[in-house]
Design goal:
- The chain is mostly helical.
- Helix 2 crosses helix 3, helix 4 packs across helix 6 and helix 5 runs antiparallel to helix 8.
- The radius of gyration is 18 Å and the shape is globular.
- Helices cover 67% and strands 10% of the residues.
């Protein structure tokens, strides 16, 4: 912890039964460190849909006080990732087909527009970053590492959002995509899933390189609709 009560990025917060959370860049407040660590466990399904979250246990596991953990859970509740059950406690929000359909509807509108902007505004560094993500994805596909592939999917969409050069849109999509990610794990057992996602990301990147906003939007819509079809087969 630094002198201002923050956790320096680069600190690894981990438990025996959950993947490590590694922060980078500027210092995190204790509240933000708790938020990132708990969210990571939700989107990787370490905390599974419908599972109760005990604040005291989370606090002990992370080595962070109860107040920052409580604040982090409040933030996750506002973002639709956990629910407070009266007289029972906090649970990870259960999987709902209605929620999936609503997320898809919003992504089709917002992320399709976002990728059009990215095709027009992405700079060389962002294009290089996307290219690097796809190279790393190919490596992890060979290793069949589901968690790393999911995190790279998150990184890919995050770079696309930033490339739109619209901070409000990028913030909205970040929250929306985090809500989508845990559903990503549900559809992993479908044959060819990882290969299809990789090919779809390559099509999106190709359109961005060509500055072709129409092609970028078509590729993104196809990607989101395939995500929807995958989940409808799996739930």
């Amino acid at each position: 912890m630094n002198q201002h009560g923050g956790v320096a990025r680069g600190l690894k917060i981990r438990s025996a039964d959950a993947p490590e959370f590694t922060a980078v860049r500027e210092p995190l407040s204790l509240r933000d460190a708790a938020y990132e660590a708990i969210k990571h466990r939700i989107i990787t399904c370490t905390y599974r849909p419908g599972e109760y979250i005990n604040e005291a246990n989370v606090s002990a596991m992370l080595g962070i006080g109860r107040t920052p953990v409580h604040q982090a859970i409040d933030r996750l509740m506002l973002e639709g990732m956990v629910e407070v059950m009266p007289r029972k406690g906090v649970i990870v929000k259960p999987v709902s087909l209605d929620e999936i359909m609503q997320i898809v509807e919003v992504r089709l509108l917002n992320e399709s527009y976002c990728v059009r902007l990215a095709a027009e505004r992405a700079d060389r560094d962002e294009t290089s970053h996307l290219t690097d993500i796809l190279a790393r994805t190919a490596q992890w596909m060979e290793a069949r590492n589901s968690e790393q592939l999911m995190l790279l999917d998150r990184e890919f969409h995050g770079v696309l959002a930033r490339a739109s050069k619209n901070v409000v849109l990028a913030d909205t999509l970040s929250k929306l995509h985090d809500r989508s990610l845990r559903f990503w794990f549900i559809s992993l057992n479908r044959a060819g899933h990882n290969e299809n996602v990789h090919a779809q990301h390559e099509a999106i990147l190709a359109a961005i390189r060509d500055r072709d906003a129409e092609a970028a939007e078509r590729a993104m819509r196809a990607h989101i609709l395939d995500f929807r079809e995958n989940l409808m087969r799996s739930i």
